[in-house]
Amino acid sequence: MGYHWDWAVLFRAVPTGETTYLAWMLSGLQMTVMLSLSAWAMALVVGSLMGVLRTVPNRWLARLAAGYVEVFRNIPLLVQLFIWYFVLPELLPPALGTGFKQMHPVAQQFLASMVCLGFFTSARVCEQVRAGIQSLPRGQMHAALALGLTLPQAYRHVLVPMAFRLIVPPLTSEFLNIFKNSAVCSTIGLLELAAQGRQLVDYTAQPYESFIAVTLLYLMLNAIVMLGMRQVEKRARVPGYIGSGK
Amino acid sequence: MISIRRVSKFYGDFQVLADCSTEVKKGEVVVICGPSGSGKSTLIKCVNGLEPFQSGEIVVDDVSVGGPKTDLPKLRSRVGMVFQHFELFPHMTIAENLIIAQTRVLGRRPNEAMDKGLKLLERVGLTAHAEKYPGELSGGQQQRVAIARALSMNPICMLFDERTSALDPEMINEVLEVMVKLAQEGMTMMVVTHEMEFARKVARRVVFMDEGRIVEDARTEEFFGAPRSERAQQFLSKILHH
Amino acid sequence: MYDFDWSSIPGALPFLWEGMKISLEITLVAVIVGILWGTLLALMRLSGISPLAYFAAGYVNLFRSIPLVMVLLWFFLIVPQFMQAVLGLAPTADTRLVSAMMGFALFESAYYAEIIRAGIQSVPKGQVAAAYALGMTYGQAMRLVVLPQAFRNMLPLLLTQAIILFQDTSLVYVSALADFFGAAYKVGDRDGRLVELLLFAGAVYFVLCYGASYAVKRLQRRVSA
Fold it and tell me: Does residue A242 form part of some domain?
């Protein structure tokens, strides 16, 4: 088709001269990683808490957590992101809203992206944690209570640690998803990896090299996370434990 | 020590316990038996408040289990319980299983708890397995760890739930040995079991349940010698000729 | 406090409905193509013929490893050139809808392939053996015995994936194509009522997707009963 391949473009200087296109791309990669990791930390904390709430004997708390999951699961991620970024600052008390708008633009984008991905993913983590807890035999809770542990203690020391060991594989796929979903945040101007790819296309007019490079970086991220989680899975394995009979 | 007065329990419309009353005095061993679904296991779980009940009263060491102000965790920490499926915590080593409640509930220091745990492990003959995980032990060994775990709390009485023993006969013996020894040392015990040998050997009384009711509550010799109710006779002939 | 003004929504409803039609069109095409191509991929992967199995595994893993946004960008880049070269379309022709459909279809087929593979594997091996014993060929055994059972088991998962796909169609925003979300954004931007339009769009998606997943849940209960 007469496309002129030119891989050297990556090492050429950007128009302002102080750095190369490759450096742009790597800064995008760094942003993707930072965003994904911080959102993942948030999703784990919030998701575990909600997952526990979904299984507690109190019906109202359980319903509240179920509603939480439905909200975050049934609205597209992009819409959620736009609501966090464009809508929420308007609806917050003026002091907070203005405070947000006076932050550095990148900080605004990052904060909205992190909160959005964090809550979105927390709903999924919540469902996994709930499934993990519910797959444990009922006797485990009874045994913990019979020893005199309080309900929170039973969750903290017995149910949640065991549930997490069982749900490492599905959590791995959620962890991978958060890296992929972070590309959505390019739509609000956050210069993460996908956005840097598009910017490269605009500046260099070499779309194939730019997209191939970005795609390869995503594949690499994917591979690293999988290898890392395989280690976690090995560590989390419980010696001698075979599934769970009710 | 444990007194159960006119306890009834429902799941919706279905009555699982009907007007059950019995008493276990200090140092007594009482065996509860009956066909499956008779409510034995539910009754024993009411004693430490794991199963709520709608009417009646259960008093353990002068504390009313269903009382609104009862500190259930505190009460449970004084009542040892051993479960049908052992319910050791699979992600903790045997030693950790023995320590967790001592440190978290009784506030003992870790090394103090460890000493206590190891002593009990020696008592049930499993010292070598302290660093293993429950999944790596046989059923009988797990059961003995479960007993040790309950004993680690210095309980004032013990509840055993063993309705359908999942153990093979050889393992039953190693577990029964531990239980017989406990009984001889004067531990107050309420035992749900089908092991009539155990009942005959150590139980002061036998409580026979059927369809949520206590049908018979008799001294062991009387129960095995001449059960009054037809149900108990049928049950006994079935189980003894097995 | 923020002053809500919902007045721009009623007048914009026809435009929003046009957008919704685009969202639904993309979803429908991607679900149909995705299930067909996904079934083929799953069969290839389970065929035991290495080149086919490797191809299918590579395809599925590649698409599952890259963000949908990236896939869409690729298709918005490649498809127009492809269509110019092959179909002789004018460079000015608007191929964004076709690009989006192809992108979604090929992307989703990787996810469908995994669901279908699991569904096929959930059918007991004895069923295939029984089909062979009756003299059926591999193709007949799959078509007449295994796939009907597999699809019955997977139906809820396939539908759930369709709901996710419908939500994901909002990402055609990256090509400025006016699907439902794109339309809502445009109206909000034009009237300076982004807050109301975004909330409205979120509410519409929620009602549709919640309703659909509720229906799937009921169906699931009936299938498993």
Answer: no
CB B16 within 8 A of CB B42: yes
Nearest to A74 among C2, C69, C205 (CB): C205
Chain A segment 205-224 residues within 8 A of C by beta carbon are 207-208, 211, 214-215, 218-219, 222
The answer to whether the Cβ–Cβ distance between A180 and C77 falls below 8 Å is no
pLDDT over 90 at B195, yes or no: no
pLDDT for C131: 87
Asked if residue A231 is part of any domain, the answer here is yes
Minimum distance, in Å, between the CA of residue A123 and any CA atom of chain B: 26
DSSP string, A71-121: HHHSS-HHHHHHIIIIIHHHHS-HHHHHHHHHS-HHHHHHHHHHHHHHHHH
pLDDT of residue C36: 96
* Closest-CA residue of chain A to C213: A74
| Domain with A125 in it | 7-236
Q: Which residues of A are less than 8 Å from C170 in CB distance?
A: 76, 78-79
The class of domain C9-224 in CATH terms is mainly alpha
Q: Hey, is the C-beta of C133 within 8 angstroms of any chain A C-beta? A: no
Which residues in chain A are contacts of C168 at CB distance < 8 A?
76
- The whole-model pTM stands at 0.88
In this predicted structure, the answer to whether residue B234 has a pLDDT above a threshold of 80 is yes
| Domain membership flag for residue A245 | no
Domain ranges of chain C: 9-224
Residue B158 distance to chain A (closest CA, Å): 11
* ipTM of the modeled complex: 0.92
For β-strands B29-33 and B14-24, DSSP reports them as unpaired
Give how many domains chain A has, as a whole number.
Answer: 1
Residue B53 pLDDT greater than 70, yes or no: yes
Residue A1 in domain: no
| Per-residue pLDDT, A244 | 40
How many whole angstroms separate alpha carbon B190 and alpha carbon B24?
Answer: 8
Ranges of residues in chain A with a pLDDT under 50 are 244-246
CA–CA gap between residue B19 and residue B17 (Å, rounded): 7
pLDDT for A246: 31
| CATH number reported for the structural domain that contains residue A193 in this entry | 1.10.3720.10
User: Which residues from A are below 8 Å from B when comparing CB atoms?
Assistant: 137, 139-140, 142-150, 153, 157-158, 161-162, 165, 238-242
